[in-house]
Every structure is written in structure tokens, then in C-alpha cells.
Amino acid sequence: MLKRIVDEQLLEARAVFQFWPANQINDDDIVIYKDHARGEELARLHHIRQQTHKPNKKPNLSLADFIAPHESNKTDYIGGFVVSTGINAEKLAKEFETKGDDYNSILIKALADRLAEAFAEHLHQRVRTEFWGYVEAETFSNEELIKERYQGIRPAPGYPACPDHTEKATLFSLLDAEASIGVSLTEHYAMTPAASVSGFYFSHPEAEYFGTGKISDDQLQSLAKRKNKSIEEMSRWLQPILEQS
Q: For the domain 2-213, what is the CATH superfamily, name and number?
């Protein structure tokens, strides 16, 4: 298990990330363990599987597919991260707003957002080659990096492969993100400061980004049961991907 906190005062770039022993269970869940003995469960991540009909017998994917099943008796790993470049940026933007300079206020916020994405991409590269180190070296061109030709993915809760925003709560708790780098979640699971990026690290050679698409009532019920949440609550968070009956 590795935990590092980065705080670069010059750029106001802050990050916390960590790797944990993990296994897939119940097809779509990922158990995170306290240590390599796998005797004590630290947390559980709950994912959604595609339910679309695919040609050529292609499988319907879940992010849990990229972690070794518990019954394989193999210890796999998953990572998590939160990065931000927005703490001082928001203060500076408010100073411009106070002066009536809306243009520079908007510009600062936009720049902070772009820097956060760039920082997340840079950190992922260092994770692959240095901190986790599952790839010894990379020699990709900028074009290849943009096309994500590297091994591994960093999907974020709320995005197509993991549309359930409530998974951020587990991630932030595991990383103690607010105490570590000053990034917190609102009641609607938005990150504060806004110029922040969070997600999970998967190293599997076949890991890829995908969209879950629409899901049916049976999967909604399964997810609610696995998360110990009500159908009504999960329906509210997953409304954009629910099939209309």
C-alpha cells in the first residue's frame, strides 16, 4: 500500500493518491482490502454493467471486470486519486469579481480547470511508470498519449463507465481528501474547489473506457441492494441512464 500527498505551492497543484489490494466479487463489485493478507475489508466499490445488445458476441463490460476475481486467489490492485489546482484560483477569481473584472475571473477559472486535467494526466503517467510502476517505460508521442495508447485507465465517478456519482464518497473517504489536500464534496457530490479531478486507477492491459448506456430496473434494484440504498435514492442519482418504462 502506497500513499503520497503532493503539494506544489508554486503552481498550487495538490494531489493525494493511493493503491490498495483488491478483488472482484459478485461480478460487479470490487472489494478493497486493508492489507495484502486480504483478511479485512476496507471498502467496497459498486459498478454497473452494460446491458446493451452487442454484435459479434462482444461482452457487456463493467469496471469490475478489470480486477482479478476473489476466487482466482490472486491479489490484484486498484488505485484512487484526487487532484486540484483550484484552491488559490478561486480566491484570485473572486478578487477579480470584486473589482468588476468578470473577464479575468472567468479566465482564471478556465485556466485552473485545464491545469487540473493536465495535472491528472501527468500524475497518471507517473503512476504507470514510477509510483505503481506496472510499465517500465513509455515512448509515446503526444498524439499517441492523446489517443490513450498507454496501458491502464483512470475512470471518474459520474462519467460514462461509472455514472454513479455517489461512489465519490467512498473514494474521498479512502483518501481522506479533504484533510489531505483541502478538496471536499458537496451534498450533490460536486468537488470543491471546482478545478479538481478524481477517479480510480486500473492497470489491467485490456482495461478500456466505455459507457454503460441505459440500464433496466433489474440492474437498478441490484445496485441499490448492493449499496444498501433505497430504489428511490439510486433512481435519483442514475436518472440519466435509466430506461424509460
A: Vitamin B12-dependent methionine synthase, activation domain (3.10.196.10)
